[in-house]
Amino acid sequence: MTMPLTSPVRVSTALACTAAGTVLAALATAVPVAQAASPASYSVAGVDTSHHSHGRGEKERIDWTRVARTHSFVFLKASQGAGYKDPWFTRDHAAVARTSLLRAPYHFFDPRSTGDGAAQARHFIATARAAGYRGNRAGELPPVLDVEKVRRNHREVCPRELRPAQLTVFLREVRKAFRVTPIVYTRASFVKECMGGRGRVFAGHPLWLARYGSGTHEPQPVPGAGSSWTFWQHTEHGRTPGIPGTGDRNVFRGSRDQLRAMAS
């Protein structure tokens, strides 16, 4: 992601819908297999971007039409903490909406107190809505909570102020606002190191997990979450036609039809 962030399993993706037909989650049920697959084994590819993806000086435009020729989805950084808005989010969201890319905003959780989950949720909801995201329009994937290490004094560290209760509040408020179950981005090592293995707060949410440089090893399951990954961020140094420089690349565990079903 934009700030830094082993027994593999194979899963089948199930889509859970409301009575109105809105997809709330893609839940992964783990089934052990002898050997894990590599990212190349999954045909539905996507990217995630922020202002850092806009080249030198963060001033270069992304050619989203070109990105859409080789990718199916994108996660766009919208906000961070209780006040920061990504300067490219509104423009990128509008440009992506004119392509075939399925899309969703993400919020980088950056706690400055042990009880600011609601404030961060309000900030994210307002930022996403101002850009035109509603959570239930065609082409819109569920919104994303990004939970990983934060930068303090030029170092990447566990957020000292992080409490699982904050995340529960954030996820509840975002789900209420957009009427869809949010996706959670994290990694198993973060939950173990920074949350004491208390990943139960993410149970019932589609998981977007990071694991780099692991060859054929898929992401480890998140302790307590009860499901495996739905999206896999497998590199932060990938090259994507249309995006300046290198950046994050992802795959979806499922078919394009299943991904479209998640996108309202």
TrEMBL record:
Signal peptide residues on this chain, from the entry's feature table: 1-36
Keyword Signal: yes
Membrane spanning residue stretches: none
Listed GO MF terms: hydrolase activity
Record key words, sorted: Glycosidase, Hydrolase, Signal
InterPro entries per UniProt: GH, Glyco_hydro_25, Glyco_hydro_fam25_subgr
A Pfam family reported for this protein in Swiss-Prot or TrEMBL: Glyco_hydro_25
Superkingdom field: Bacteria
Coiled-coil stretches noted in the UniProt entry, renumbered to this chain: none
Stated family: Belongs to the glycosyl hydrolase 25 family.
Protein name in the entry: Glycoside hydrolase family 25 protein
Organism annotation: Streptomyces nigrescens
